[in-house]
Task: structure prediction
Amino acid sequence: MNKHYSIIISILLTTLLCSGCATFRSGIKGEFSESGKKNYGAEKVSVLFVFSHYEQAKGYDAIPKLESKRQIINDFDDFFFDALNELSNVGRYTTFTEYASDVGNPKRRAEKDSLITTSDFVIRMKFTKENSFTKHFLGTLFSTMSATLLPIPYTRNYSITVNVFNNNDVLIKRYVRQSSLTKWVQTFLIFIYPFHTERRKEEEIYIGFMHDIFKQIETERVLMVNGSS
Result:
């Protein structure tokens, strides 16, 4: 009997180890539909970009939580630097990332306030990742029970809210984008996994968000001082 159970457990473990997953992303909700228009020759401006990254498992977390430095998506700085090319009249720029620990850090808060007062514009960018704790729990349960033979979807929703302020701390523009990732887990998906990895699809969302919003800011001539043309 023990030998029989050992064989079953071995088969189950082998199946789990060989299981694969494939991740697919949705389009961007709220995507800018116009073709971009550059503002070459416009007066250069200074901009402070303030980033905040939140994550929440709905049904488990009471509120969205600020991510720590190690939790933020890898290579975020590279994605931002690439998207910055959409803005033609940004001369000097500074970035500041908010963390929950800033609540008890007067030095960090003072640093941010100082950067705000010395910039022509402040662009606050809030990134949020959400998933359903209940759906993930049930999905994991059914996936394990079926030895991943049944395809199980895991969905995570992403959004970005961008608020643009002038040097008088007046909100002049607000942009919102949304997208989602659905990761399917099933044994035979291992054959298409290399082409649809979760990491790559998540990176595509962040890149798409920033490029699209910066293109709209550029086209709408938002970062203009004293009505310069």
Remarks:
- Residues 7-19 have pLDDT under 50 and may be disordered.
